[in-house]
Amino acid sequence: MSAPGGRGRAAEPPAEPGAEMPATEKDLAEDAPWKRIQQNTFTRWCNEHLKCVQKRVGNLQTDLGDGLRLIALLEVLSQKQMGRKYNARPTFRQMQLENVSVALEFLERENIKLVSIDSKAIVDGNLKLILGLIWTLILHYSISMPMWDEEDEEEAKRQTPKQRLLGWIQNRLPQLPITNFSKDWQSGRALGALVDSCAPGLCPDWDSWDPSRPVDNAREAMQQADEWLGIPQVITPEEIVDPNVDEHSVMTYLSQFPKAKLKPGAPLRPKLNPKKARAYGPGIEPTGNVVQQRAEFTVETISAGQGEVLVYVEDPDGHREEAKVVANNDKNRTFSVSYVPKVTGVHKVTVLFAGQHIAKSPFEVQVGRAAGDAGRVTASGPGLEPLGNVANKSTHFDICTAGAGPGEVGVSIVDPSGRRGTPEAVLEDRGAGSFRCSYKPQSEGPHLVHVTFGGVPIPRSPFSVTVGQGETPPQMGTRRGGGVCAHPSDLGLCPLLSPILGSLCSKPPNSGVSVPPPPIRGSLSFKPPHHPKSGVCVFQPPQSGGLCPPSPILGSLCSHPPQSGGLCPPSPILGSLCSHPPQSGGLCPPSPILGSLCSHPPQSGGLCPPSPILGSLCSHPPQSGGLSSRGSLSLTPPRLGVSVPSPVSGSPGGLRGLSALLGPLGAPGLSLLLGGGS
């Protein structure tokens, strides 16, 4: 049995195993647990009143038998004297019976009715009748007689003690459906609500208490009531939440609240309601958070009162860390919370306000793999240049993901017709965050190169790449005398190199492609004629004119200089081939073998200086061109015709004679030099 008046009193420890139990305890044990709770409660109630006269009941069944403690209890409760003498030292049974009779007669004078209770039952220790006597005292002195605040006197007189006490509590706790003195009090929350209603601020957060922890809830409320309201714990927290507790025990404890007065210095707190605090933001969303990236959310407490916010994050392995919480000091009393998850998996985020869970806490947050930053990825290389790529030729570019975090690199190419994936992009992982992408465009025109990282386009993606015309392999050629010019119908190419003449070159009008310049001679250009099956190779430098690299054998073929004409560097064998002199004609430097090749004399024609072997190669008037009837070959450069008379009439032997002089060049070489068809 607990000591009177103190906080946290506990029931007496049970008897040791094997100890002989008194007959009355056996009866109680065999009957019901509630009787032991009631006996303990009534004993504590008696002692709370007797302590002011330095008396105490240790065993309610036996300690009232001499009548002295019963007389003292009645004088304290009634604040009156017995009015009759009694034995101060009742050593004999008769003395004890007399003392108990004095007490019972006093109750009759106080109009307290007793049923089947006489002095003999008390002296002999009839526990059932003794408990009935104490309950009668509780009803009269603790529930029925006192006038309570905010109570209608006439209404109180019409009610039973139980109805009166229940009505008072219901008026105090309109937010709770209290209808009894048993199960409605077993969670402990109603006790907290009652304490806070008597002294607002003693248990302001009672509505956030966990119903699954009834003993803790009841202990908190009863300790506050004991210390600051002067309400002794005549029943223990464990007993009041026990499903076997009887209503008389609960009513005995609760009957003390109507007379409670708050003591000075009580630690009153503002009313708190943690369940009205709320959290929102990506940091508590079920999905979307990733490893090693800051997760953030906000806690709003404007409706919850004043309190501290604490947040704990527990990872899948059970490791728990406190999150960073910063008060924003705004009108809604919000707090910014952040944490950085270190592993993947489900994390438990616990949010506490004033030590209690807020609504929906704890939150379950699925943390996924980290996503890289596409904005830190770069791509460069010829394959991404706007110009310079050609069809049917492989190209490439490099992608750098260093410092962007983890993520998958993706490349897709859209061709001019809008087809994605043609051409195919081939990715090569070169390590250290470096990738090379190669592709071979199949068609000319604008292409779009899409580069992504983690599914997100990188800066400047998609890249616009215009693909130009590609190269086509040559279809004919010879190594005799250098290159041979193909007719436009044969793709118009001059592909082969000559160790002497170099190559027949590049970019004839409307057809062909460029070929590198020769190491000795420079280049010749293809000029398609007006006739479908003929053509000549001529030198076609820029329109501004200029000199060509000299050849030790043939000298130079010169380009169309300005309209004022000009001379070409001399050759020891052929002299020079001169370009389009002024319209009045002119002479070229002489050659000891061929004399001179002269350009386009006046419209009347004319002869060039003679040659000891071939005579002269003279220019032909415009518009004629072609092979003459008297043993001449015509050279037809752009806008120019040259006829070559031969000393052997009507025979191409002159050409063969010249071929003999030219040696390895042969007749085809001369033919090419002078503009013959292929």
SSE order and pairing:
Blueprint: H1 23-31, H2 33-50, H3 68-78, H4 93-109, H5 119-123, H6 127-144, H7 153-158, H8 161-172, H9 189-198, H10 214-229, H11 237-240, H12 247-254, E1 278-280, E2 289-290, E3 295-300, E4 309-314, E5 320-322, E6 324-327, E7 334-339, E8 345-353, E9 356-357, E10 363-368, E11 378-380, E12 389-390, E13 395-400, E14 409-414, E15 426-431, E16 434-439, E17 445-453, E18 456-457, E19 463-468, E20 497-498, E21 502-505, E22 523-527, E23 536-538, E24 618-620, E25 633-635, E26 641-644, H13 653-662, H14 666-674
Parallel strand pairs: 2-10, 12-19, 21-22
Antiparallel strand pairs: 1-3, 3-7, 4-5, 4-8, 6-7, 8-9, 8-10, 11-13, 13-16, 14-17, 15-16, 17-18, 17-19, 20-21, 22-23, 24-26, 25-26
What would you say this structure looks like, in words?
The protein is of the alpha+beta class and 678 residues long. It has 14 helices and 26 strands. It has helices spanning 23-31, 33-50, 68-78, 93-109, 119-123, 127-144, 153-158, 161-172, 189-198, 214-229, 237-240, 247-254, 653-662, 666-674, and strands spanning 278-280, 289-290, 295-300, 309-314, 320-322, 324-327, 334-339, 345-353, 356-357, 363-368, 378-380, 389-390, 395-400, 409-414, 426-431, 434-439, 445-453, 456-457, 463-468, 497-498, 502-505, 523-527, 536-538, 618-620, 633-635, 641-644. Strands 2, 4, 5, 8, 9 and 10 form a six-stranded mixed β-sheet that branches. Strands 12, 14, 17, 18 and 19 form a five-stranded mixed β-sheet that branches. Strand 20 and strand 21 form a beta hairpin. Helix 2 (33-50) packs parallel to helix 12 (247-254), helix 9 (189-198) runs parallel beside helix 10 and helix 13 (653-662) packs across helix 14 (666-674). The protein is rod-shaped and about 135 Å long. The termini are far apart.
